[in-house]
């Protein structure tokens, strides 16, 4: 990737954040509750990425997602560690593809603990695919004006003669 001198790259200190060092089975075990717990931060980050189209402008939101994830797993560790570990180990050891099918009993135990002690209900199937309106405090970015190049080729006038293609249309499947 080629950069010019006017491109601002964030300093290392701006990017440094404590990482979430967890295994795949642990992340899968907590994924539904984590998604519900950090929904606001995740939606804010994804909205920023979509609107800004530049990840450098969304560093603050990305740090908020990581902080929320760390907070969630700390709460799970303090209140439902045994139930969570049983569920995570079941996911890890019961199949080669992290299937949840064999772990429904341990899942139910963890879900009950998360509901009782953390007040986080496991979202219903399809919850994360539902359309929602996200309310944000961040102002909408200004649209960049379309670039105008003074030496660009002028467009053909509307009344210019347009001859048919010499060898017929490439879109042979389209009929008039």
UniProtKB/TrEMBL annotation:
Name of the coding gene: LOC113504103
GO annotation terms (biological process): mitochondrial electron transport, NADH to ubiquinone
Subcellular location: Mitochondrion inner membrane
Known role: Accessory subunit of the mitochondrial membrane respiratory chain NADH dehydrogenase (Complex I), that is believed not to be involved in catalysis. Complex I functions in the transfer of electrons from NADH to the respiratory chain. The immediate electron acceptor for the enzyme is believed to be ubiquinone.
InterPro entries hit by this protein: NDUFA8
Transmembrane segment boundaries: none
GO CC annotation, single: mitochondrial inner membrane
UniProt keyword annotations, A-Z: Disulfide bond, Electron transport, Membrane, Mitochondrion, Mitochondrion inner membrane, Repeat, Respiratory chain, Transport
Protein name: NADH dehydrogenase [ubiquinone] 1 alpha subcomplex subunit 8
Source organism of the structure: Trichoplusia ni (Cabbage looper)
Start and end residues of each stretch annotated as Disordered: 136-163
Family note: Belongs to the complex I NDUFA8 subunit family.
Basic and acidic residues biased stretches: 136-146
PROSITE patterns the UniProt entry points to: CHCH (PS51808)
């Amino acid at each position: 990737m080629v950069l010019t001198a006017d491109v601002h790259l964030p300093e290392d200190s701006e990017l440094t954040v404590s990482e979430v060092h967890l295994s795949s089975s642990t992340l899968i075990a907590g994924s539904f509750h984590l998604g519900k717990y950090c929904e606001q931060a995740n939606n804010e980050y994804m909205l920023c990425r979509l609107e800004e189209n530049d990840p450098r402008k969304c560093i603050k939101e990305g740090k908020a997602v990581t902080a929320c994830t760390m907070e969630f797993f700390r709460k799970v560790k303090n209140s439902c560690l045994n139930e969570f570990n049983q569920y995570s180990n079941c996911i890890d050891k019961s199949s080669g593809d992290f299937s949840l099918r064999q772990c429904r009993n341990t899942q139910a135990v963890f879900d009950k603990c998360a509901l009782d002690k953390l007040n986080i209900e496991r979202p219903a199937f399809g919850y994360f695919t539902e359309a929602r309106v996200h309310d944000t405090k961040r102002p909408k970015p200004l649209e960049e004006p379309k670039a105008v190049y003074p030496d660009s080729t002028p467009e053909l006038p509307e009344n210019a003669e347009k001859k048919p293609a010499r060898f017929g249309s490439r879109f042979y499947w389209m009929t008039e």
